[in-house]
Amino acid sequence: MSGRAIPDATVARLPVYHRVLVSLADSGSHTVSSEELATACGVTSAKLRKDLSYLGSYGTRGVGYDVQFLTYQIARELGLTSPWGVVVVGLGNLGRALVSYRGFASRGFQVVGLIDSHPDVVGTVVSVVDRRITVQSVDNLRAIVADNDARIGVITTPADFRCCRSRRP
Amino acid sequence: MSGRAIPDATVARLPVYHRVLVSLADSGSHTVSSEELATACGVTSAKLRKDLSYLGSYGTRGVGYDVQFLTYQIARELGLTSPWGVVVVGLGNLGRALVSYRGFASRGFQVVGLIDSHPDVVGTVVSVVDRRITVQSVDNLRAIVADNDARIGVITTPADFRCCRSRRP
DNA sequence: TAGATTGTTAATCGATTAACAATC
DNA sequence: TAGATTGTTAATCGATTAACAATC
Questions:
Q1: What domains sit in chain A, N to C, each tagged with a CATH number?
Q2: pLDDT (average), residues A51-67
Q3: CA torsion, points A65, A66, A67, A71, in degrees to nearest 10?
């Protein structure tokens, strides 16, 4: 099953299934049928079973799916089992608000680098959820990304500044 | 052409075409070929022409499309020619920041109502871009929506509060 | 075993693509 | 007219659906 490509339309629905499964687990469900899960996700049970079949055979005929196990398998497929590294560029009000937001960590994102252009800000230490990170110059961006395998960049600079820089690279 | 249903996949791409056309107009283009526009939108020219053909025949063979005219036709199809009414519920920091954000108005949204639960806030007048609107109680929500033909509700209340209310309707 | 539910099949449906006639 | 580009056709490709054999 690992060699086959999963259809785009299926991949697009996996996050929905994952979210609904997490909330099912929160409300105490241990097992769920394709019919129940499909209804909760707003799709048909046939489509849901077809989608899940691309991941593998994780259900039990006559019983349904184990909520924990299926949640994990989808998370694994989506690359949610290890956190995604994020670099935040721009530590104004918005940037500082974002890095202290605990919702990122709980959803599998981890801030691994902070960048700012202002000399007074570079070198300062900022609290990021459970750690403290030193703000660095944009000159170090490439190294930060490489060292931490960062995959996502969040740009929280003023709009006009962003504009300026992209026109004078 | 007005009777036929436009495929979902096409409708999903129209906002992209619209945005790119607006920026082409900003940069002074008067005419654009399907090849140029498609490249700028990240699709193939065949797909673009097929998509546009569902709206009508708005191009000129041998020449291309008039940027202004095509922009307008897509805007009309998307219902962007008259603003969408928005009601904002919750006038804390986030709600107040949103209603004063000029980006909504320039993108075809118009705040037509403000709701808050706090008795001290109800009855106060808030500046909304170019007008001033009186904050009302949630009891008036239905009337506000009906009177202004509001189509979008933005809920900017604390998460736990939102939770509470949905469990005790 | 009997009932329930999955995983898969095959048919249908919708979207994409390449090619080109129409035509400015 | 000659060159360019649209709008449309028909073939291909991918997604959805309903049905049901497999099996817990």
A1: 8-78 (1.10.10.10), 84-167 (3.40.50.720)
A2: 97
A3: -90
